[in-house]
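Quick log. Single chain, no ligands specified.
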Amino acid sequence: MSMLTFGCAAAQSVQAPVRLGNNDTVVFFGDSITEQGGGENGYVTLFKTAVQAKLPEVKIVNAGVSGNKSTDLVSRVEKDVLSQQPAVAIIYIGINDVWHKRLFAGGGTSRENYETALTTLVQKFKANRIRPVLCTMTVIGELPDGQNPQDQDLSDYAETVRRVCGREQVVLIDLRKRFMETLAKRNPNRVSQGILTTDGVHLSTDGNKLVAAEMLKAFGL
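-> predicted structure:
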C-alpha cells in the first residue's frame, strides 16, 4: 500500500465546526490570495463581516504576503501569527509552491518539503494552543477536466494537505474540490480565467464569495 493511500485511509480530517468565542482572534495565513482577500470584496473581509455580525469582538488578522510559499510561512510564523495569540489560524498556502515550478528555474517546493512545512506549522500551532485549519489550494487556470498544465501537480499537493489533516487531526477546508466541482458546472465554454479567478489564479468576486462561504461553513456559520 502506498504512503498516499495509507494516509487517506488511516485517518480522516476533523469535520466538526470550529467554534469561536467573542474575544477570539483568527489569523489568515497565506500568500497574495490571502493578502488580496482583505480588499472590499475579498474573502477575508466577507468572513470578517459575517463573523462580527454574530460575535462583534472577534478580531480578524490578515497575514497574507504576496509571493509566499509554505516555507516562507514557517520563516515568519512567530512574528506574524504566534505574536497575535490567536485562537485559530487558517493556513491557505500552496499555489506558489506549485506555480513557481513552472515560472522560475528551480522554483517551487517539492511535495516532501511542502508536507514538512505544513506539518511544522500545524504542530507549532498546537503547541501554542492555537487551532489550525488547513485549506487545499485552488487553481492555476480554470479549464475543467484536468486540462490546465499544472492540474496534476495541484491535485497531488492537495492530497498532501488532506493527508496532513488526517494525520494531525485538524479541520480541512477542501477549496480545490469545491472549485473543480463549480468550474465543471459553470465553465461550458472552457475559458481559462474569468469565472472564479481574474487571471487563472487570483480570486474574482465569485471566487472570493465561494472561499468565504466554505470557510464560514467550517465555522458553523
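Residues 3-9+20-218 form a domain with the Rossmann fold fold (CATH 3.40.50.1110).
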